[in-house]
Specification:
Elements (H helix, E strand, L loop, with lengths): L1 E3 H4 L11 H10 L3 E7 L6 E13 L5 E8 L9 E6 L9 E5 L4 E2 L3 E2 L3 E3 L2 E3 L2 E2 L30 H4 L5 E6 L10 H12 L20 E4 L10 E10 L9 H9 L7 H13 L3 E5 L7 E5 L5 E3 L5 E3 L5 E5 L2 E5 L3 E2 L12 E8 L1 H10 L5 H6 L8 H16 L2 E10 L9 E3 L3 H6 L5 H10 L3 E7 L2 E7 L10 H12 L19 H15 L3 E2 L5 E2 L1 H8 L19 E2 L4 H13 L5 E8 L21 H9 L6 E8 L1 E3 L8 E2 L2 H15 L3 E5 L5 E11 L2 E9 L1 H6 L6 E6 L1 H8 L15 E10 L4 H12 L3 E10 L8 E10 L8 H19 L2 E2 L3
Parallel strand pairs: 13-16, 27-30
Antiparallel strand pairs: 1-12, 2-12, 3-4, 3-6, 4-5, 6-11, 7-8, 9-10, 14-22, 14-23, 15-22, 16-19, 17-18, 19-20, 20-21, 24-26, 25-26, 28-29, 30-31, 31-37, 32-33, 34-35, 35-36, 36-37, 38-40, 38-41, 39-40
Helix pairs in contact: 2-4, 5-6, 6-9, 13-17, 20-21
Length: 838
């Protein structure tokens, strides 16, 4: 919303000159957001001049210029008359025009100076409307007689045309539609400063009229609510639609961001900006019969003011006459009844339309307009008559019209009935933390337009507060508290940090997630955050979910990445590609976040349209259709993880790095990682491992397929891992781990080499040995693998290092050997292991 300062000052008093900066500060203090300051880019000497004479001089390039003598100051002194070259031909001797003298600067940084052109020294410039920033018309010189004014020669043209005005822009939130007007902003400035406010509605006296037929039949087909509850019509006869728009109206509209079109249209826009009530003007001679407000019928269409033929929806609210649709209510009028230069009779419409209906129509037809912006935020239903009267008065004053006898007044009396709110003034302290006298709270509520009635109830007063008609956002007691806090000043709310209650803080699961993420970062891996929207094909191969079952986003930002991720690897791939393209070739990344696994059924078709709340069964079905969103952690490695150094050879990233990072993540969760040979469609079949905790699969690690990596402009060797973090935390548990005390007893160490079939995973053999060895076994690790001479084809030798210890005694070698033999027996039973050399 842009607010020209000169306009605002008509309705608020200010003891000192009002500046744009001070206005911004005041409006920010009551919750409006500062945006920008807008000015006309005109400075320096720009004055009213009178054309005394001119000589037309044809040029060799085919153009004819006028060498003009222009008086720019009273009298006949040396500086009063300037010689100026002008290429326009739409002015005459005796015309008063706008002259930019040397030293002036026009929009675009165009500096005026005396310069030689076409054989003359042009001592200034006679300006057009576009050159002054007043519009787009550059076809000829701006003649002041066309604006209906006759100023004195030498007068300051910037003040005359409103070019010295300034507009402040603020952002208005959707719940405060009343602030989309000079009326609303003036009231807010009054609240911020205490300066006197005059409601523009009080300056007009609506005159009733009748005789024009208006029928409202507009029940919304889905919600069953009326779309039009106020419809005021007023007529004006004998206007001159071609009359010029007064300069002050034109300049204020331009500063407010609205271009000048014609006098009748400019007046309707002017009143809309002033009162916040959108208006529409119909050419009364082009109307057929009376007006009916109704919903569209199937197959109907309308040519709107932008000359577009629009197919209408049965939910669209229409303005119609006997010939059919003549406008989209609250959005845009129709071309059939458009006001033109030959229009002499005008019907002014001021109405209240349902915000939801207008918002849907505007979005459905992609027709945002200044009117729809206000209707969908909520317009004061009691301002329509005053706004219509204001438009009539301006048409009479500036278009030479007379008030007509035809009109209509259709008002649903219930539209202005605001709900009465039971309000406890002590809730201001309880909810906002501001201690105010009850009299101060009452004054604030009265000042914003509320009606306040007190009713004593013991030690506590309960007030009955009725909001004003322009504040539909005040619905309950908390909204009133917020309003009191806003006017009292958000800066008066004390900043007190409440003490944390004992026993609160992060949950065990949150602690585990944070421990894993921070621990990986401490190991030197770089955390990245990627978008959850990915390519369906990559999602399928990395996450193992068919494209038809993936969760698809209906309004995706990128149509090629329109599904929610089922794996974190595609996001890591994109991050790696971006880093490689910028010359970073050694990469160790990780990401922790949610993946989106599809449910059995995606979505539900039982959701009622409109603003109706679904029943509980439908809500439950919606929640069930959301799918599972577990927390995962994944990492990716490219390049040299250990660079070349003195006495150190470089080592490229590989499966060992992925397994090391995965082992770190599992350990941070409090689990013990088990690794077995695995398979995955995106990993190299010979370099992939299944990650297990407590006997259950939690993830995968290995090296990605070289061909798949090359297709994505990555090196052939890329290592990665992925772990279902939610499952890992469940398996590892969230209770604090008990650390065993160091034993004072010595350990007994032994090795064992067994021969097994090459298809048997080493992890299976290790688990069987540990199970058979029993409680005396403290540690077991694979130390060597051998395939070759003395080993049968298809078999391999695995050597494990064992450490035995007892808490209460020193173990003998015989006891350690017995435990090792028990482990061998169990391994032979489980996987056919035999002692090497037997």
């Amino acid at each position: 919303m842009r607010i020209p300062l000169s306009w605002l000052q008509e309705y608020v008093s200010s003891p000192a000159p009002l500046s744009a900066e001070s206005l911004h500060d005041a409006l920010v203090s009551v919750g409006l957001e500062e945006e920008d300051i807008h000015r006309f880019e005109v400075s320096g000497p720009v004055v009213v001049g009178e054309v005394l004479e001119f000589v037309e001089e044809p040029q060799s390039n085919g153009k004819t210029i006028r060498w003009c003598q222009v008086r720019v100051a009273p009298g006949g002194g040396e500086d009063a008359i300037r010689g100026i070259v002008c290429g326009a031909d739409n002015f005459f001797v005796g015309d008063k025009v706008v002259v930019s003298l040397p030293g002036a600067v026009l929009p675009g940084g165009f500096e005026i100076s005396a310069r030689k052109t076409y054989g003359h020294v042009s001592d200034g410039m006679i300006a057009s409307a576009k050159e002054l920033g007043l519009g787009e018309d550059h076809s000829g010189i701006l003649r002041l007689v066309d604006l209906g004014i006759d100023p004195d020669v030498g007068d300051d043209a910037t003040a005359l045309l409103g070019l010295d005005d300034v507009a402040v822009e603020v952002n208005v939130t959707p719940d405060r539609g009343y602030a989309m007007s000079i009326r609303g902003i003036a009231r807010e400035y009054h609240h911020a400063t205490g300066h006197d406010f005059v409601d523009p509605v009080d300056r007009v006296t609506p005159v009733g009229s009748a005789g024009f037929g208006v029928n409202v039949d507009d029940r919304e087909p889905i919600r069953g609510v009326p779309g039009c509850r106020v419809f005021i019509a007023r007529s004006v006869e004998g206007i001159d639609a071609s009359a010029p728009t007064p300069p002050f109206i034109q300049s204020r509209l331009l500063l407010a961001g609205i271009r000048s079109i014609s006098l009748p249209v400019d007046i309707t826009n002017y009143v809309m900006m002033e009162y916040g009530q959108p208006l529409h003007g119909y050419d009364l001679d082009r109307l057929t019969g009376g007006i009916t407000v109704r919903r569209a019928k199937a197959g109907e269409s309308l040519t709107t003011l932008d000359d577009q033929v629009r197919t209408l929806d049965p939910e669209d609210l229409l303005i119609t006459d006997e010939s059919g649709p003549i406008g989209m209510a609250g959005v845009m009028g129709g071309a059939k009844t458009e006001l033109g230069e030959d229009s002499t009779r005008v019907l002014i419409e001021a109405a209240w339309f349902d915000p939801v209906s207008i918002a849907r129509t505007a979005r459905r037809h992609k027709l945002p307009s200044e009117a729809s912006k206000r209707f969908q935020r909520g317009v004061d239903p009691l301002v329509a008559e005053a706004a219509a009267q204001r438009a009539v008065d301006l048409l009479v004053t500036y278009a030479g019209g007379t008030p007509g006898d035809l009109g209509a007044r259709v008002i649903d009396d219930a539209v202005a009935v605001m709900p009465t709110i039971a309000f406890d003034p002590q809730s201001v302290d309880g909810l906002a933390g501001i201690t105010l006298e009850h009299s101060r709270i009452s004054d604030i509520l009265l000042d914003i337009g509320c009606q306040v009635a007190t009713a004593g109830s013991g030690a506590v007063d309960t007030w009955q507060v009725t909001p004003p008609s322009w504040r539909p956002d005040l619905e309950n007691s908390p909204t009133l508290v917020e309003e009191v806090a806003r006017i009292a000043g958000f800066d008066t709310i004390p900043s007190i940090l409440p003490p944390a209650p004992s026993g609160r803080g992060l949950t065990p699961i949150q602690q585990a997630k944070r421990r894993i993420s921070q621990g990986l970062a401490h190991r030197g891996y770089t955390e990245v955050l990627s978008y959850p929207f990915v390519d369906p094909a990559d999602n399928a191969v990395c996450g193992g979910v068919d494209e038809s079952k993936q969760v698809r986003v209906a309004n995706a930002l990128d149509p090629q990445k329109a599904v929610l991720r089922t794996s974190l690897i595609p996001g890591l791939i994109e991050s790696a590609q971006r880093n490689l393209s910028r010359g970073v070739v050694d990469i160790a990344l990780y990401e922790a976040g949610s993946v989106f696994l599809p449910p059995e059924s995606l979505g539900t078709t039982d959701i009622a349209p409109g603003a109706t709340r679904p029943d509980q069964d439908t809500i439950d079905a919606m929640n069930q259709s959301l799918g599972h969103q577990p927390w995962w952690v994944s990492g990716l490695f490219i390049g040299q993880q250990r660079p070349r150094g003195v006495g150190q050879h470089p080592e490229s990233a590989g499966i060992a790095d992925a397994l090391d990072a995965a082992r770190t993540a599992v350990a941070l969760a409090g689990g013990v990682l088990e690794v077995t040979q695995g398979s995955h469609p995106v990993f190299h079949p010979g370099r992939v491992a299944t990650l297990m905790v407590a006997g259950e699969e939690v993830g995968v690690a290995g090296e990605l397929l070289p061909s798949w990596c090359v297709e994505r402009d990555l090196p052939r060797r890329v290592a990665a891992y992925e772990i279902d973090g939610s499952k890992l935390i469940d398996l590892a548990g969230t209770d604090p781990r008990v650390v065993d005390s160091l034993s004072a007893m010595p350990a007994a160490t032994q090795d064992i080499s067994v021969v097994v079939d090459q298809s048997v995973p080493a992890a299976t053999v290790q688990a069987a040995l540990a199970e058979g060895a029993g409680d005396l076994l403290e540690h077991i690790a694979l130390s060597d693998e051998y395939v070759g001479e003395a080993i049968a084809e298809g078999s391999r030798s695995l050597t494990f290092a064992l450490r035995f210890r007892a808490d209460d005694r020193t173990l003998t070698q015989a006891e350690a050997t017995e435990a090792k033999s028990a482990g061998l027996a169990r391994a032979a039973e489980v996987c056919g292991a035999r002692l090497r050399g037997e």
